[in-house]
Specification:
This protein is an alpha+beta fold and 174 residues long. It has a domain of 115 residues. The chain has one helix and nine strands, in the order H-E-E-E-E-E-E-E-E-E. The longest helix has 24 residues. The radius of gyration is 25 Å and the shape is elongated.
Length: 174
Amino acid sequence: MDAPTAFLRQLATRSTATWQSRGRRVFPGEASLETGNSLYRFRDGVFISRARKPARSFDAPKSMRGMRLIGFLTEEAGRLSLSPRWRAGAHAVLWRPGTLDDSSFVVTSPVGSMAIEEPPMLPRAERIEPSHSGIQLKVIARAARPPKIARPCPASMTRLHPAKPLEPPTYALT
C-alpha cells in the first residue's frame, strides 16, 4: 500500500458522509480532467468515462463505474492534503462509495487542466409527457439557481497593520 492510499483510508473513516454529499454541490454538471496520460469525464462528480492518450475513444472500465470524484491530493512539505479545489499539478482522487479497501481509491497522475460545464438554468416549468403505458408523467423542471457572486475576501485578522508614528512630547517652559 502506498502513502496516498494509506492517507485516504485513514481519512475515509471519518469523511465518507462528506464525500457522499460532495459530488453534485462541488462538481455540478459535466466536468473533465486532463492528465498527461488520460482524459476523465464526470457528471455531478460521478465517473462517466475516460480516454487514454493519444486515442480519442472513451471507455468506461467496470472497475471505475460509479466512482466519485472527491477532491484533489497535493503534497506540500512532505504532508498530504485533500481539497475539493483543483490546483495545477494536483492528483484527482476517485472513491467507490461503500468500500474502504485499497481498490476503492484511484489516484490519477497530476491533473494539468480541469473544465466544468454547469447544467443550464431552467425556469420552473411543468409539462405532461405522453407515455406508451398510458400513465401520464408530470415533469417539473428544476428552479433556476441564483447567479454566483464572488464575495471579496475579508480583511486579514492576522496581518500587522502599521501604526502611526509617535510624536515626541513637547514640554512648555514656565
